[in-house]
Design goal:
- By secondary structure, the chain is mainly α.
- Helices cover about 70% and strands about 0% of the residues.
- The chain contains 52 helices and no strands.
- The protein is elongated, with a radius of gyration of 45 Å.
- It holds the Pfam family PPR.
- This is Pentacotripeptide-repeat region of PRORP domain-containing protein.
- Belongs to the PPR family. P subfamily.
């Protein structure tokens, strides 16, 4: 109790987030015996957090474990364990179940059967079958006869479980095997039918008793009276009430039933008048609580809480308080319930302490509304008032720890469930699983799921889906496989996200066949695989050269209403073209797709593009010609794709023939120009590319080539040292208003550094023009930049000036800075070092060429000692080089760099 009081003052309450907040919270610490005030787990003191967190969690778990263990009754637990060792009851099985093993086990306990013991067992044991087993066994033991109280208890149990057929079987069997005491027999029979909701039968039996001169006792009279009120037999209520009064059996129970009768007729004023009349009459009754409670209960159910509250204040007793709390909770008037409890705590007379059922109902409702501080107060109050928790209390506490962000304590209590006699409810299992999934403890959540299934409980679809999503995030294939199997066995259809993630995880691990099997299982379940999962499977089989399966999946995808994208379609076509006997496979795929698609240009273009990527222009040409035969004129996209197909395969002559054929059919445009020029450049045909470029520019005056077209053309002309033609292309680019890109500028700087003929050619080409026009033109100014990098001007160049000059022509990037470094490192090593620091300060990420340029430069200038310090400065890159070398991925450039570094170290 000391621990819990400490927790209330210093731990849990101080750590719960603001009300109605679902976010998990941290712990405060447990103080030592020498510390007067608790230290909070403040982020400012990280060194304390881990150890104190563990200490707090363990202390809380031990505290609640001890409290939970106090609720058990080892003797009754032993009886319950024997009784619950065989299944559960159903409407279709016989009421009397003979189990020799259970009979022998109970007999071995040498129980001294009494009415009190039987009632205790029936109250303690929760499931109906176990109760009926014990009741039946006790009735067959020599020297013991069931009493009206034990019969009434089993009747109520069966009635609450709605096992009326079993109840009637019991009454019929008892009628046939009546005991030695006739009065007791008739009392029990009348009570049984009354509790079973058959008051008319009970009245008939009562009439026969009176005819035979036998009467009911006071207990049976009140059971019958209550049943008549419940079923609305109000005329008979008055008659039976008069007989109860005549026989001197009238008590507070009688008055409370009659008050309930008025309330059932909605005569609340009469009920209150009757109540006050009984109290004012001076009739000797043990307590007015039952009478007042009946009226308070009825008023609350009629939503007259204000009137009921006044009666509670005027005639309040503990029984009335119980009803008042129950009804406030039922109506979700939690503020009223909490205020009332606080008021009763301040009474000068005996303090009202709710029973465990009232605490449970109030705490459960507060928990659902995230009022965690008040939940904490009530839980601690239960412990301080020495109220033993029942099974529901334990489950609620577990849920509280989950909501309060202390799921580790909940797991500790869960792991101790056998020791403390805890049987988890579906609510607690769901809370645990959901919270663990949210916190990333998927393995623990899966363990709880497995244990629950082993014990016969299967969580609902929502927690199952939450766990499925969590498993997707961790991509644990073994758990996902088992989870999928369990879902199949229980007929649970998981979310599309789970199946998608599962298939994606299998494919990413190279288990394509397993992914394909899961896809097949979904088909059997009439569940359509998602488009993303189809994409993953198809791309996986494409990478593994299984174009046949990829083709099958593509067709399925279309049949299931999923539309494959362009990249996926062309990927399948490309894969088919790379298989054995590609012609046959290609035609087969084309025929199957034609049966599913309405042929159009887009459809045929997919096949042309895929065949082109596979470098099978012959197959692309077949589709191209098939379009014409089908009466579909190839569109611009078809022509472009067919040109690319020829150019990728090195079929330059075929590409040119098609190009000139296109010129006859359509007006030349930017796309055709770009496709031909770029394709010829990448095919290393600079002269042909330039020829086509000039021809297009001559015939199509309005055609403005793309920047890519200029970039590729200038790149290939520089590569083959056709510098005179580079000038022509740049001039054309300037005329059409196309800006100089970083790619073109970097290439010009690179070839200026590598080959001084670029600048010479530049000067020669400009010398034929007049001085005035050339010196003011952009091409002349660009030539000055080329000359600067060709070492034709001064050597001592300021790096800021150099940056500014280059920046006037095109945007600078890391490759441009590499050119500047390469220029400076030849003669201005210190300036190169300063430029490198400037590059880093500007946020550029140096690449291998950057480091290589610097290291080689220092090495060539013989500044080994200084270079050693540079190595330390570049240590991150050195580690990267080492990792790549050990991984077998060291290319020649890096190898040279490594050599230079070794030289530095030796020096």
């Amino acid at each position: 109790m000391v621990r819990l009081r400490y927790l209330k003052q210093n731990s849990i309450r101080s750590l719960i987030s603001p009300l109605n907040n679902n976010n998990p919270f941290n712990y405060s610490t447990i103080t030592s015996s020498t510390t007067s005030n608790a230290l909070s787990l403040n982020p400012l003191f990280p060194s304390y957090s881990s150890s104190l967190h563990k200490l707090q969690a363990e202390d809380l778990a031990v505290t609640f474990r001890e409290w939970f263990k106090s609720s058990g009754n080892p003797f009754l637990d032993q009886i319950h364990q024997i009784l619950s060792s065989n299944g559960s009851i159903s409407e279709n099985e016989d009421f009397v179940v003979q189990h020799e093993a259970i009979d022998a086990a109970l007999s071995s306990l040498n129980l001294r059967l009494t009415e009190s013991l039987v009632l205790d067992v029936l109250s303690y044991v929760k499931d109906v079958l176990s109760c009926t087993k014990f009741f039946d066994w006790a009735g067959r033991q020599q020297g013991f006869h069931h009493t009206r109280a034990t019969f009434n208890a089993i009747f109520k149990i069966l009635s609450r479980a709605k096992l009326m057929s079993k109840m009637f079987d019991l009454l019929d069997r008892y009628n046939k095997h009546r005991g030695g005491h006739m009065t007791n027999f008739h009392n029990i029979l009348v009570m049984g039918y009354a509790v079973a909701g058959k008051p008319e039968v009970a009245l008939q039996l009562f009439g026969r008793m009176r005819y035979q001169g036998i009467d009911l006792d006071d207990f049976a009279y009140h059971v019958l009276l209550n049943a008549l009120v419940e079923e609305g037999y109000f005329d008979e209520v008055e008659s039976v009430a008069r007989q109860i009064k005549t026989r001197g059996f009238e008590s507070e129970i009688t008055h409370s039933i009659l008050v309930k009768g008025f309330c059932r007729k909605r005569e609340f004023d009469k009920a209150e008048s009757y109540l006050r009349g009984v109290i004012d009459s001076g009739i000797k009754i043990k307590s007015s609580g039952y009478i007042v409670g009946a009226l308070v209960d009825a008023l609350c159910k009629n939503d007259e809480f204000e009137k009921a509250g006044k009666l509670v204040d005027e005639f309040g007793e503990f029984h009335v308080y119980d009803i008042w709390i129950r009804e406030l909770v039922r109506a979700r008037k939690l503020d009223g319930a909490m205020e009332f409890l606080q008021k009763t705590r301040n009474q000068k007379t005996a303090v009202y302490v709710p029973d465990v059922f009232r605490y449970n109902s109030l705490i459960l409702r507060l928990l659902r509304e995230n009022r965690l501080e008040e939940v904490c107060d009530l839980v601690i109050e239960m412990r301080e008032n020495n109220i033993p928790p029942d099974e529901l209390t334990m489950n609620i506490v577990l849920c509280f720890f989950c909501k309060a962000g202390m799921v580790d304590i909940a797991v500790k209590l869960y792991d101790s469930r056998t020791e403390i006699g805890l049987s988890l409810s579906s609510m607690a299992v769901n809370y645990l699983m959901n919270t663990l999934c949210r916190d990333g403890s998927v393995i623990d959540a899966y363990r709880i799921l497995s244990n629950s299934i082993d014990q016969g409980y299967f969580p609902g679809k929502i927690p199952f889906s939450i766990l499925a999503d969590a498993l997707c995030n961790v991509e644990n294939l073994e758990m996902m496989k088992e989870f999928f199997r369990v879902a199949l066995e229980h007929g649970i259809l998981l979310s599309n996200k789970f199946y998608e993630k599962y298939i994606n995880a299998l494919c990413s691990k190279g288990k394509l066949e397993d992914g394909y099997i899961i896809h097949g299982e979904l088909t059997l379940l009439d569940k359509v695989t998602t488009g993303c999962a189809y994409n993953t499977l198809i791309n996986g089989f494409i990478k593994h050269n299984r174009g046949d399966i990829a083709t099958r999946l593509l067709i399925e995808m279309k049949e299931k209403g999923r539309t494959p994208g362009r990249e996926l379609f062309r990927g399948v076509v490309q894969s088919v073209c790379e298989m054995e006997n590609p012609e046959k496979q290609f035609k087969k795929l084309l025929e199957m797709q034609l049966s599913l698609h309405e042929p159009n240009c887009t459809f045929f273009n997919y096949f042309i593009e895929g065949a082109g990527l596979a470098k099978r222009p012959d197959l692309a040409k077949e589709v191209y010609e098939m379009m014409k035969k089908s009466g579909i004129s190839p569109n611009l996209g078809s022509d472009v794709l067919m040109l690319k197909s020829y150019l990728k395969s090195g079929k330059t002559s075929d590409a040119l023939m098609l190009f000139y054929d296109i010129l006859k059919r359509r007006k030349i445009g930017r796309k055709i120009c770009n496709t031909m020029v770029v394709g010829l450049c990448k095919a290393s045909k600079p002269d042909v590319a330039l020829s086509i470029f000039l021809e297009i520019r001559e015939k199509g005056k309005t055609v403005k080539p793309s920047i890519e077209c200029y970039e590729e053309l200038i790149y290939v002309l520089c590569k083959y040292k056709r510098y005179d033609k580079v000038m022509d292309v740049i001039n054309d680019m300037i005329r059409v208003g196309c800006p100089l890109s970083s790619f073109i500028g970097n290439n010009l700087l690179l070839y200026s550094l590598k080959d001084q003929n670029l600048y010479s050619t530049w000067v020669d080409s400009l010398s034929t023009e007049s001085t005035e026009s050339t010196q003011s033109s952009p091409i002349w100014k660009l030539g000055e930049l080329v000359g600067l990098f060709s070492d034709r001007f001064r050597d001592d160049i300021d790096i800021d000036e150099l940056e500014e000059v280059v920046g006037k022509f095109f945007p600078l990037d890391i490759y441009t800075y590499n050119m500047l470094l390469r220029k400076l490192i030849k003669k201005q090593v210190d300036d190169a070092s300063r430029l490198f620091r400037k590059i880093c300060e500007k946020g550029y990420k140096p690449n291998q060429w950057t480091y290589e340029t610097l290291v080689h430069g220092f090495y060539r200038h013989g500044r080994a000692a200084e270079g050693f310090h540079k190595v330390a400065y570049f240590q991150k890159h050195v580690k990267h080089i080492k990792d790549r070398r050990e991984g077998g991925k060291l290319d020649k450039g890096v190898a040279d760099l490594q050599y230079c570094l070794v030289v530095f170290w030796i020096s």
